[in-house]
Recover the amino acids of this structure.
């Protein structure tokens, strides 16, 4: 039996395709439909390079730790 809330649909405001009412992201165009999630994504975009600097720093530290673990721990 299907729950009635799965039958409720909405129209994506970006591509005009029909998606589930509880969808957070449009399966057709990929735009974020959830208001809170969209605000969080826009905040990430407006912070610019800070997101990339943090990601770059963590990847360089993980590569140095992986090289030290393979130096003679076998």
């Amino acid at each position: 039996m299907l729950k009635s809330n799965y039958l409720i649909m909405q129209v994506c405001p970006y591509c005009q395709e029909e998606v589930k009412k509880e969808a957070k992201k449009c399966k057709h165009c990929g735009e974020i439909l959830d208001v809170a999630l969209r605000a969080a994504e826009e905040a990430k975009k407006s912070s610019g390079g800070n997101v990339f600097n943090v990601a770059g720093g963590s990847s360089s530290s993980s590569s140095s730790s992986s090289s030290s673990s393979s130096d003679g721990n076998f």
In short: Residues 53-70 have pLDDT under 50 and may be disordered. The chain has one domain: 9-69.
